[in-house]
Amino acid sequence: MVYFPEVSKVEYEGPKSRNPLAFKYYNPQERVLGKTMAEHLRFAVSYWHTFTLQGNDPFGLPTMIRPWDGYQGMDLAKRRVEAAFEFFDKLNVTYFCFHDRDIAPEGATLRETNRYLDEIVDMLEEYMKSTGKKLLWNTANLFSHPRFVHGAATSPNADVFAYAAAQVKKGLEVAKRLGAENYVFWGGREGYETLLNTNLQLELDNLARLLRMAADYADEIGFTGQLLIEPKPKEPTKHQYDFDAATTIAFLKTHGLADRFKLNLEANHATLAGHTFEHELYVSRIHGMLGSVDANQGDPLLGWDTDEFPTDLYSTTLAMYQILQNGGLHKGGLNFDAKVRRASMTPVDLFHGHIAGMDAFARGLQVAAKLLEDKVFEQVVEERYQSYSDGIGATIVNGTATLSSLEAYILDKELSVHSSGRQEQLLAILNQYLLET
């Protein structure tokens, strides 16, 4: 069966193309700073938003029109696999991602659920072998089922903790079998609604315990993929323990896990935390914790996780500026944790959304590379902090300064700090590069 007959292979046609089913900026073979765009960007399709999203919201019923409509249970799961690999091929992407419950339904027991999961994993494995497609990461859905209403690793019920642990164990085994390059933890329910009924210390310690068990089991089975944690400040809980990059890094360091985990950062989650996306990337990068990216954007006029396809060129450029300074994403990639709008219900809209996002990040890559080549902002930063390169500033940086030595230096010195930060000029330069590069 052909699921997307209206679409042939999406190809690069250049900025002047008016073909809506062609790339304008994403040329997989174009070389930027010594690597191809495909190598830099490592695009991945999210299984959940692309193949399971129905378009329902708190105010309305499903709207999505999909070729696999009408199937149920395992038949539906198998049709989605077929459609997914047709989509990957026509969009010309190598990677995909999934939650365990995206690809296979739940059974009456975990044993039955695992049997369903194994059957679909068998199918995925065959398709991956025949097409060369790869799994960027997989994860366990520890938030949708009512059993996780109070959390998974942070649940007050030890049986729920045990269930979550068993689900993670199976997820790691699937990751090993399919050659996943990463395994992600997103604590959708790992937080609290009110402190009046919460043992905060126990919940944080239990979350660390599950992560430690997972790292140990990954070693036990020989899974060499990267372990990732995805921060989010709220939704669905009021306060989630992995609030933002800084909070998550502090948690990992406190519990001795920083050497085993990196971060999978999402643009829309940064917005919800009150940060820019580049802030979250920068914080993670300087701590050596930048692992992978959920590529989307939020709507600043809305206060929830809208998961829109990324089209803001300022955001994609500044994101790629940080990623390039990180030496790339290494085992990570740019996963489109993004969904078409509820009114964009036809199958072809899935292609339009992905093409828009891929072009936006490709353009961001081009501009960020040129900014780095020209050392536009590095020169400004170096000049701004020049006082720490020698003299009293050097003693502060190298640790030889003391309160007494600094007092002796400054006591009778006339202080002048009237140097411009040049913010408006720098924004104008960024505009110039976006428009002319």
Question: Which features characterize this protein?
Answer:
single chain, 437 residues, alpha/beta, two-stranded parallel ribbon, 46% helix
Tell me what the structure shows.
It is built from 16 helices and 14 strands. The protein has helices at residues 37-41, 47-52, 73-91, 100-103, 110-131, 158-178, 200-221, 245-254, 267-272, 277-286, 313-325, 347-373, 376-384, 391-397, 403-410, 423-436; strands at residues 11-12, 22-23, 31-32, 35-36, 43-46, 95-99, 134-139, 182-185, 191-192, 226-229, 239-240, 261-266, 290-294, 334-336. An 8-stranded parallel barrel has the order 5-6-7-8-10-12-13-14, surrounded by 4 helices. Strands 1-2 form a two-stranded parallel ribbon. A two-stranded antiparallel sheet has the order 3-4. It is globular.
Topology:
Layout (H helix, E strand, L loop, with lengths): L10 E2 L9 E2 L7 E2 L2 E2 H5 L1 E4 H6 L20 H19 L3 E5 H4 L6 H22 L2 E6 L18 H21 L3 E4 L5 E2 L7 H22 L4 E4 L9 E2 L4 H10 L6 E6 H6 L4 H10 L3 E5 L18 H13 L8 E3 L10 H27 L2 H9 L6 H7 L5 H8 L12 H14 L1
